[in-house]
Amino acid sequence: MTDYKALEHEYGLDLYPKRDLVAVRGEGAILYDESDNQYIDCAAGIGVASLGHSHPKLVEAIQQQAARLITCPNILYNDVRSKLLEKLVEVTPLSLTQAYLCNSGTEANEAALKFARLHTGRPNFVTAMRGFHGRTMGSVSATFTKKYREAFEPLVPGFDYVPLNKIEKLEAVVNDKTAAVMLELVQGEGGVNLIQADYIAAARELCNERGALLIIDEIQTGFCRTGKFFACEYFDLQPDIMTIAKSMGGGVPIGATMLSADFEVGPGLHGTTFGGNPLACAAALAAIDVFQNDDLAKRAAELGDYFETQLKAEDLSQVRVVRRLGLMIGIELKQKAQEKLTHLLDNKIVALPAGANVIRMLPPLIIEKEQIDRVVAVLRACLA
Description:
Blueprint: H1 4-11, E1 23-27, E2 30-33, E3 38-41, H2 44-47, H3 56-68, H4 79-91, E4 98-102, H5 105-120, E5 124-128, H6 137-141, H7 146-149, E6 159-162, H8 167-173, E7 178-184, E8 186-187, E9 193-194, H9 197-210, E10 213-217, E11 241-244, E12 255-259, H10 278-293, H11 296-311, E13 319-325, E14 328-333, H12 338-346, E15 349-350, E16 352-353, E17 358-361, H13 369-383
Parallel strand pairs: 3-15, 5-6, 5-7, 7-10, 10-11
Antiparallel strand pairs: 1-2, 2-3, 4-12, 8-9, 11-12, 13-14, 14-17, 16-17
Helix pairs in contact: 3-10, 4-10, 11-13
């Protein structure tokens, strides 16, 4: 049998803390390894596979589009791209009427930063401590956590970082040089920290008063993950820019930067070779169709409630708090999480960390209650 682990270690950069699992196929919420062992996938490709693995409607759309046209540069019009642009404006907040298509969340955020500087003529940004916005130079400059930043300094200048949900701290730094305030409504990488309604309302008002833009990063929260199609809906929030990716293509790489009508970005100021390619656009259209027609926002809300209720049915002495919105779940422990993540994997469950002491659960939105019961049983056994 081919040693796939050895091949990755020999020829790939050692950038990721590898789990002892070679995933070779998937179906629904289940991953299969090379020996056909089954694992319940509560990582979902780090929040990407919200439709699970190999969803038949997604597979069909990709196969049909691959046989028609895979790539098409943005210097030409394209039927599938145009339909996706229309659909994104339809499903995102009313304030957003234009879209830039790219390949990932960090690219979407990179574009948002550039467009904000271009639109306002201002140099600076304000983001939240414990936030995460990506790995490219601009996106990592917007990210507070030192471990992502220090090795690559000096980074893009002009970023201030404030604690989440402290209105007075935000008021103190937003000024006439601030191009935008950039926030996640749930900090995924930072520990599944939820924004407070009064804070985001204050941020919107403050940006209006001081001429700054409000950028909302919905890369992990978007497309039904939190129990709404977008987390903005919890706050009736109308951002100036919103960034989306992850679940958007059901697993196929795609992202977008959504903009309000008053943005003007002329030819040549930004661009992408692969962004908006017909294959990814077809995948996104199929995925959005499933999100809407199967009402996966409602399903995420109901299954998230069920998950938390079942988990809390027993006293878990090692748990400090459970933070959750829909099926975006953070279990903060009184100890580091890595040992528990290993225990979960040993019991055929794939989960994620969010900081040193938080277990993050991002299961596919199509996960079944029986599978949640299995996950909860293992969690109870290792956290009681």
